Automatic annotation (TrEMBL):
Official protein name in the record: Putative interleukin-17 receptor E-like
Sequence intervals crossing the membrane: 474-496
InterPro entries the record matches: IL-17_rcpt-like, IL-17_rcpt_C/E_N
Nucleotide-binding in keyword set: no
Superkingdom, natural source: Eukaryota
Length: 500
């Protein structure tokens, strides 16, 4: 409330003004709290039995200098709120209610209320006081009330209040956003906001959704469908039509994948009807990572999100059930576009990692197939051999590593391996030392895993001196006994032949 320090209302006028201001304050609190009043008809009226009238008014009017008897306290206690005009159930429309406390003077014949919104011309209403009563009521406080401005849900409006006649420094403005269709009252009673309430039951085995609809717009059919929600909800099936005559508003929808953006969408058949969506699988993020594909001819690994998702997609090498080491320069940020990794080695340990704010998921598309190339190890005499065999023409590089943290590796040589023609790598006995590993990886692709083999079981092919001297003390007596037995048997056989 704005009030000059020089104004000092006295007696009954003080009590009357206080009461009126308390009413205005209460109205303001209700408006701020989101509680919406209802009315059957809009109206314009004034207190103190003043027979004020409302009519349309021009928005274009020049102002003039303020009279000496008028100041900013002439009009105060201005409140603007939203109410609903309801003809019957589900037949309501939002209106603006403007109230103001006006001190009547001979120079003031009324108030002009103007509303401006985006894309529309400014409209004004004039509330005028009867001239015959102005002399008798001069100096009294009158509460002016008007609620005939029809507005749409969610509209931003600019409301201006001016005096009649228009004085240059006696103008009040206020910006207001009309509650949108998310407001409970509007969602149940304003036709353009009524979209119905959808309930569902999921049958995972049959991949079916049993849907029940309530609170829909009367006298109109209702439509249902499944859609993938992104910037728009893209339909995945035909519409199901529920007739307005049907007492039970039920339907069954079938789905193929339980994607987090798969939603049930419903709307009335009226033109430009508001739509509502519920997404039964919105927390099923893991379903997104099942679409990894591989083009063997192009050696391209790709994934395209079925739903919009903010994720980092990278390649990694599996190191057990709970660990996967990222491959260098393989990370890609994705939201809705297809991700492609070109020239990828389809090795069982090569995996795809998906990272979001909710966590990380790892998918290994080649885990159930044989590698295109492989290593075998053999140890003969004093020679260690690594054999590289391949089902494709490829190139590999191999090196020796020391099993430390971090692992240190030295590249030794690069090899070309032809299809079905194994290549042997001859190693020295040094590889039998503790902590020595052989590392091999493909070099003719952009992304490949590193195959590491450590802890070779070596044999030099010669008997151990310690084992020969002391390791088997029973061996020599056993040989002597066996020789003696054979000689005795041979002598007995010869004697037997002579006797016969």
């Amino acid at each position: 409330m704005i009030r000059d320090q020089g104004d000092r209302p006295r007696g009954g006028r003080t009590r009357m003004r206080s009461a009126l201001l308390m009413v205005l304050t209460a109205c303001g609190v209700l408006a701020e709290g989101g509680m919406m009043d209802r009315m059957q008809h809009c109206s314009t009226h004034c207190s103190q039995e003043v027979q004020c009238r409302a009519r349309s008014h021009s928005a274009f009017e020049f102002c003039k200098e303020t009279a000496t008897e008028l100041n900013r306290t002439t009009v105060q206690g201005i409140t603007i709120s939203t109410v609903m005009k309801c003809e019957q159930e589900q037949r309501c429309s939002p209106h603006l209610r403007v109230t103001a406390l006006v001190q009547l003077t001979k120079q003031l014949r009324g108030l002009a209320l103007c509303m401006l919104s985006a894309g529309m011309l400014e409209t004004c209403r004039a509330v005028t006081f009867p001239r015959r009563n102005l002399h008798r009521l001069t100096g009294q406080q009158v509460l002016v009330h008007d609620d005939c401005f029809d507005v749409r849900p969610g509209l931003d409006v600019h409301v201006t209040l001016k005096t009649i006649p228009s004085y240059c420094n006696l103008t009040w403005s206020h910006d207001l956003r009309v509650p949108g269709c998310n407001n409970v009252d509007l969602r149940k009673n304003v036709p353009e906001c009524i979209s119905g309430t959808i309930e569902y039951v999921v049958d995972s085995e049959r991949r079916e959704l049993s849907v029940k609809v309530s609170g829909i717009l009367e006298d109109w059919d209702y439509r249902l469908r499944l859609c993938l929600k992104g910037f728009i909800c893209r339909g995945t099936s035909e519409h199901i039509l529920i007739k307005k005559e049907e007492p039970m508003k039920n339907a069954t929808l079938r789905y193929s994948r339980a994607l987090p953006c798969l939603c049930i969408e419903g709307w009335s058949s009226m033109p430009d009807a508001r739509r509502t969506q519920v997404c039964p699988f919105r927390n099923n993020t893991g379903e997104l990572w099942k679409g990894v594909t591989f083009d063997a001819e192009q050696e391209a690994l790709s994934w395209e999100p079925e739903c919009p998702v903010e994720a980092v997609v990278s390649l990694c090498q599996s190191a057990g059930e709970l660990d996967c080491h990222d491959l260098a320069n393989s990370s890609q940020v994705v939201s809705s576009k297809k991700v492609v990794f070109s020239k990828v080695d389809p090795h069982p340990k090569l995996c795809v990692k998906f990272s979001t704010a909710a966590g990380s998921w790892v998918k290994c598309p080649f885990v159930r197939q044989n590698a295109a190339w492989d290593l075998t190890f053999s140890s003969v005499a004093q020679h260690q051999t690594v054999t590289v065999s391949s089902y494709i023409n490829t190139k590999v590089v191999w090196g020796l590593c020391r099993n430390s943290k971090p692992m240190e590796c030295d590249q030794v040589a690069s090899l070309a391996v032809e299809k079905f023609k194994p290549v042997d790598i001859n190693l020295t006995m040094e590889t039998c030392g503790p902590g020595v590993c052989v590392q091999v990886r493909r070099t003719d692709v952009n992304f490949s895993v590193q195959v590491l083999h450590c802890n070779f079981q070596c044999s030099d092919g010669y008997p151990d001196e310690e084992k020969t001297g002391n390791g088997a003390p029973w061996l020599l007596p056993s040989l002597c006994c066996l020789t003696l037995t054979l000689l005795l048997a041979f002598s007995a056989l010869m004697i037997f032949k002579k006797l016969n």
